[in-house]
Write a structure and sequence with these properties.
Keywords: ATP-binding, Ligase, Magnesium, Metal-binding, Nucleotide-binding, One-carbon metabolism, Signal. It catalyses: (6S)-5,6,7,8-tetrahydrofolyl-(gamma-L-Glu)(n) + L-glutamate + ATP = (6S)-5,6,7,8-tetrahydrofolyl-(gamma-L-Glu)(n+1) + ADP + phosphate + H(+). By secondary structure, this protein is of the alpha/beta class. 32% of the residues are buried. The longest helix is centred in the N-terminal third of the chain and has 19 residues, at 79-97. It has an 8-stranded mixed beta sheet with strand order 4-5-11-6-7-10-9-8, sandwiched between helices. The radius of gyration is 23 Å and the shape is globular. The chain has helices at residues 7-17, 40-52, 79-97, 114-122, 155-173, 219-232, 266-282, 317-330, 344-354, and strands at 21-22, 33-35, 57-59, 130-133, 145-149, 204-211, 237-242, 295-296, 306-307, 311-313, 334-341.
């Protein structure tokens, strides 16, 4: 019997068989439990809960990159080595419990089975640390508008997203050019051509943020973590664009999308104020004066919304992408690197628009 495991398969196995448990789900008596390394406060709670239920609690260590035989995890970000370690522990335990002992992996000193390596180095997860060059840009400008997609929507994941984005844009700025997209229907991520780091095309890289989050989230926790983590890596956003999600209108019984003038932008305007306040505070100014740099409804391209010194609100995502594409055409010496984050809904909407 041949088993080819990837991370998606592992998730299916966990859900389907429910004979292994992963925190933070409720602990069940008699079922092995796994967690990744946690802060002491959290770990103490997990240990206490497991002890009361007579459950064996195992801590899955991060994957040692050396076990991949020179290959790289297909999912980017340092935190993915934590996820990979947990996935290995879960799949190994499930294989043992179902009699497939030839595929098990018990400790870091052991070599990983070939099937595990294949799964970890080929797994794909759209909307997480994903780079998508805009295919609507003409051939001469291809690679001048790139969307960096990550559906982070918690303070912790926002920080990891910022770190990934910061490292990715620096690496990409050192590369000479993008290859043209492959002519296939596999949906695989487009790879970048490796150029000589010393050869520059003379273009300036500009970072833009496209952001929205659900109203149940606290932007006062999300946006500062994002901004600070990027700044720690020397990355600063030239402009932040706040947009409503399109996908929320695709519901059972809905017949048409609302027009731009019908969309309630109060939440996006609130996000904009948070961002402008952060910028003003970072400059040493008083946050209460942030609104003074915004002029409601001022928009030279007649797109509506609200324009501020460091940000814009658009009444729809298509209008924001239209503005980005026009900016690329009007600024021949600039490469736009656009981080899209804050909501998996938003990331999905962008994917639908730029890859359709």
């Amino acid at each position: 019997m041949h088993l080819f495991l990837n991370l998606n398969t592992i998730c299916v196995l966990i859900i389907a068989f429910l004979r292994i448990q992963v925190f933070p789900f409720p602990i069940q008596d008699g079922i092995p439990a796994f967690t990744v390394p946690q802060p002491d406060e959290a770990m103490n709670v997990l240990v206490e809960k497991a002890s009361k239920l007579n459950v064996t609690l195992k801590v899955a260590e991060p994957l040692d990159a050396k076990l991949l035989n020179g290959l790289k995890l297909s999912l980017e970000g340092e935190h993915q080595y934590l996820n990979a370690g947990l996935a290995i522990a879960l799949s190994s335990t499930w294989l043992q419990r179902t009699g497939h002992h030839e595929f098990t992996y018990l400790e870091q000193a052991s070599p990983l089975p070939e099937q595990f390596i294949k799964g970890l180095t080929t797994a794909s997860l759209q909307g997480r640390a994903q780079k998508v060059p805009d295919q609507y840009i003409n051939a001469e400008r291809y690679g001048d508008l790139v969307f960096y997609l990550d559906g982070a929507h918690s303070p912790e994941s926002m920080e990891m997203c910022a770190k990934w984005f910061s490292l990715a844009v620096k690496e990409d700025s050192q590369k000479k050019a993008f290859n043209h997209p492959p002519q296939n229907n596999s949906g695989s991520t487009i790879e970048l051509a490796q150029g000589n780091p010393n050869e520059r095309d003379g273009k300036i890289s500009m970072q833009i943020l496209v952001f929205n989050c659900m109203s149940v989230r606290d932007p006062q926790l999300l946006l500062p973590r994002l901004m600070k983590a990027c700044a720690n890596h020397g990355v600063y956003f030239k402009k932040a664009l706040f947009v409503p999600n399109t996908s929320v209108y695709y519901k059972v019984g809905s017949h048409a999308l609302p027009t731009d003038s019908q969309v309630d932008l109060s939440w996006q305007l609130a996000l904009q104020r948070v961002w402008e306040n952060l910028i003003q505070s970072d400059k040493g100014g008083e946050a209460k004066h942030a609104d003074a740099v915004c002029e409601e409804g001022k928009d030279d391209t007649k797109m509506g919304g609200s324009t501020c010194e460091n940000s814009r609100v658009f009444p729809s995502l298509p209008l924001a992408i239209k503005w980005l594409r026009e900016s690329v055409q009007q600024n021949q010496s600039v490469r736009y690197q656009v981080l899209v984050t804050g909501s998996l809904h938003l990331v999905g909407d962008v994917l639908r628009l730029v890859k359709m």
